[in-house]
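Reply to dn_fold:

You asked what the input looked like. This is it:
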Amino acid sequence: MAVYTVLSRADIEALIRAYSVGELTHFRGIGEGVTNSTYFIDTTLGQWVLTVFEELDYAELPFFMQLMDHLAAHGLPVIHPVARDDGGFLSEVRGRPCALVYRLAGASVFEPGPAHCESLARVVAEMHRLAPSSGLSRPNPRDLAWIAASRKRLAPVLKAEQLALFDAELATQRNASALFEDLPRTLIHADLFRDNVLFQARRVTGVIDFFYACEEYILFDLAVICCDWCFDTDDCFHSDRWAAFITAYHHRCRLGQPEIDAWPRMLAAAALRFWTSRLVDYHFPRGAAAPNVHDPSPFERLLSRIRNNPPALL
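and this is what came back:
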C-alpha cells in the first residue's frame, strides 16, 4: 500500500456516491507498500479501504474481485470488495481503476509466535482447498521468464558477486522442472508476507493484498510464508514457527514425497523471486508521493543461506 495518486475530499465524495456506504466523514492515505495507492475511508455507515490500482488495468482486475468475493462468500477472513449500487466492483478515479473494500479488524504482527503461524496455516489450507471452485484462472506474471527478463535489466547495476548468485540460482531453477512437474497447482495468494495478514490476539482476522494471486504451485505459497514468517533479517531460522505452520497445514492438506523432494528448490525460487522484485524496485523506483522501497539485501542473504542449508519441509 502507498500513495501515488493523490485524491482530494471531493474526489472521494464523488466516488462513494456510487456505493451505499453513507456520507464521507474522514479519509487518509496509507504510505506503506510499493504498488497501489491506498486510503482509509470513514463514512457515516462504516469503515472502508479504497485501493487505486497503479499498474493493473481494467481487463485484469475482475479476476481479483471475483476471487476475493468467492473466498469471502465461503467464510474465509479475506479482503472483500464492496459492490457498487449497479452491482459492479470497479470504479474509476483520476483516470485510474479503483475498488472499495470492507476494512477488516486486526493488525499485522511482525514478531509472530507459533500460535499465529498455526492460525495462518488453517486459513491458507482452506484458501487452497476452495480456490479451484472459483472457476478462475490467471498465469503468474512474475514467473521464471519475468525473472530472466529482469536479470537483463539489472545486470548493469548489480555487483559481480550479486550477478554470480543470481545467475547460479536462475540456472538451477531452469533445471528444476522435473522436480516440479508432479506438484499440485491452484490459485495461490503468492504474496503472503506478514504485512498482508491481520490478527486479533493470535487468530487471523484478515488476509489482504491479493493482487499477485495467480495459478501456481501450492508449494510456492508455502515457500513464501517460510521465507518471511520464519526467517529474521539476521537470517535466524525460527524452527518453532515453521513447525507450527507446517504441522497445521499438513493436517488439512497432506504433503507427500514430491513436495519434500522439491522443497529446497521451491524455497530458493521464492527467495529469488522476491530478491528480483526488490532489486527492480530499488534500482528503478517509481515516481511517487510516498514510496516505500524495500531493501533487497535480506533476500540476497536468504537466497545464499537456502542454497547452502535449506530447512526441511516436514
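Residues 128 and 188 are 7 Å apart (CA to CA).
Hope that clears it up.
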